[in-house]
Amino acid sequence: MLLELEDIRTAYGLSQVLFGISLTVEEGECVGLLGRNGVGKTTTMRSVMGLTPPNAGRVRFKSRDITGWPPYRVARAGIGFVPEDRRIFAELSVWENLDVARRAAGRPGRWTMETVFELFPVLARLRDRQGGFLSGGEQQMLTIARTLMGNPDLLLLDEPSEGLAPLVVEALLVKIAELKAQGLTILIAEQAVDFSLALADRVYVLEKGKVRFTGPAATLRADQALVDRLMSV
Ligand SMILES: Nc1ncnc2c1ncn2[C@@H]1O[C@H](COP(=O)(O)OP(=O)(O)O)[C@@H](O)[C@H]1O
Ligand SMILES: [Mg+2]
Q1: Does residue 40 have its Cβ closer than 6 Å to ligand 1?
Q2: What is the C-alpha to C-alpha distance for residues 132 and 150, in angstroms, rounded to an integer?
Q3: pTM (2 decimals)?
Q4: 37 lines ligand 1 (CB under 6 A)
Q5: Which residues contact 85 (CB under 8 A, 6 or more apart)?
Q6: pLDDT digits over 170-189, tens only?
Q7: Which run of H or E residues covers position 198?
Q8: How is the chain split into domains, by residue range?
Q9: Nearest-10 Cα torsion for 170, 184, 71, 99
Q10: Is any ligand 1 atom within 6 A of the Cβ of residue 85?
Q11: How far away, in angstroms, is 32 Cα from ligand 2 center?
Q12: Contact criterion met (CB below 8 Å) for 164 and 135
């Protein structure tokens, strides 16, 4: 077991958002976190990262209790977070964005400037372009590439396909599938059911801060009516 959430409850001020989420991610797995807008997918990831620490429950990573650790320490422990808002440095070039991430992470490993450019040849071609001049899809690839520079053992991907054109989504899917094939463990939050079902081994469907369904992704791939029911209000 790489990641384990046990009954976590998380609030923004007085507003309770997660009401006891339990989930696990095993080494090498790709797990989908599904659910409509506002059900608590991002908050679950923020709870893991220590960006919005839970007020109850435990987060364990590699059997260590990391509940409430500050984000830099969680990242150092080996969890890479790709936020939904793609905060790249607009004034820095692609290469500089990656270099900053590499220095900040201080976790050497298989991901280097070279291997990241191998995975994303489009970024290699655009290495001198300023981040602010990249397309949405290129920015998403840079955000993922930047997180890989920290050589995470677990990758948290928050809504990677959001706002991207269908062809770009398709290209992104191929890249994430490649990461999975290379053995990287991934937790992916998505409203786009097809996207996450194409990648995930298992899924958790959230509703109003609780787990409404959990099971193999294959179960949902085979049952559109169940998907419709789970994703409805
Ligand atoms: N910074 C915040 N302050 C207060 N409420 C928030 C904040 N961020 C999210 N929320 C609320 O928490 C709930 C869950 O949000 P979120 O985790 O972003 O859901 P999802 O990622 O599934 O769309 C929503 O009702 C949202 O309005
Ligand atoms: Mg979200």
Answers
A1: yes
A2: 22
A3: 0.96
A4: yes
A5: none
A6: 999 999 999 999 999 999 99
A7: helix 193-199
A8: 1-78+155-164+172-233, 81-152
A9: -70
A10: no
A11: 13
A12: no
Q: What are phi and psi of 232, to 5 degrees?
A: -80, 175
pLDDT of residue 233: 60
Q: How far is the CA of 87 from the centre of ligand 2 (A)?
A: 14
Q: Where are the alpha helices (DSSP H) in 24-165?
A: 41-49, 71-77, 94-105, 113-119, 121-125, 136-148
Report d(CA 89, CA 179) in Å as an integer: 24
Q: To test the ligand 1 pocket, which listed residue (10, 12, 44) has its Cβ within 8 A of the most ligand atoms?
A: 12
What is the per-residue pLDDT across 131-168, written as a single tens digit (0 to 9) for each? 999 999 999 999 999 999 999 999 999 999 999 999 99
Closest Cα to atom 7 of ligand 1: 12
pLDDT tens digits, one per residue of 84-136 = 988 899 999 999 999 999 999 889 999 999 999 999 999 999 999 999 999 99
Q: Ligand 1: which residue has its CA nearest to atom 24? A: 38
Ligand 1, atom 5, lies closest to the CA of 12
Q: How far apart are CA 134 and CA 10, in angstroms?
A: 35
Q: What whole-number distance in Å separates Cα of residue 223 and Cα of residue 233? A: 18
The answer as to CATH 3.40.640.10 being correct for domain 1-78+155-164+172-233 is no
- Alpha-carbon distance of 120 to 169, in angstroms, equals 14
Other Cβ atoms within 10 Å of 225 Cβ, number: 7
Ligand 1 centroid – CA 96 distance (Å):
32
